Amino acid sequence: MSVVAANRSESSSFTDYFDFFNLPRQFQIDRSVLDRAYLTIQQEVHPDKFVNQDDQQKRRSLQMTTYANTAYQTLKQPVPRGFYLCQLAGLDPQLETNTAMPKAFLIQQMEWREELDDAKSDLSKLEALQQAVQAIQKEWQLQIEKAFDEALAPEKALEKLRCALFLERFLEELDHRLSALI
Predict the structure, then answer these.
(1) DSSP secondary structure letter of residue 11
(2) Which domains does the chain have, with CATH numbers?
(3) What backbone phi and psi angles, to 5 degrees, belong to 54?
């Protein structure tokens, strides 16, 4: 195991996923820097490199690879990264029990659902809805970034993250509907 990988495998050498990849603890990250850090770590600790090592090194390699994968999956997308930042700030997202969202957003959700139902298999209507929701999603991400990076309350970011999570799921549903038509 390389010196870098060995240092990373010591639990005291990093405090969180951001530290693990040598990234600042903030919502806005440089995805290419994250990607490079992830690939570097994977190249150093991948289990295939340790097939001829003792069991302890094999286990450490597997643990580091698993941790790197989890950290990367969490940080690479804005919504999971935002929820992770909230957790680091001591907030419990309570996704299963707390679905509170602004009233205007709830009304907008119902309108989008109606549009989705009305569009059925109309490709142009579905694509227009997708573009509209993607534009709203970008706006929400900017609001989330502002809430985190301008040191506003993480609680405000958490509310916005719940809305952004709905947008992600709704866009996935739209993508499935569009894929079925194409």
Answers:
(1) G
(2) 3-76 (1.10.287.110), 103-181 (1.20.1280)
(3) -70, 170
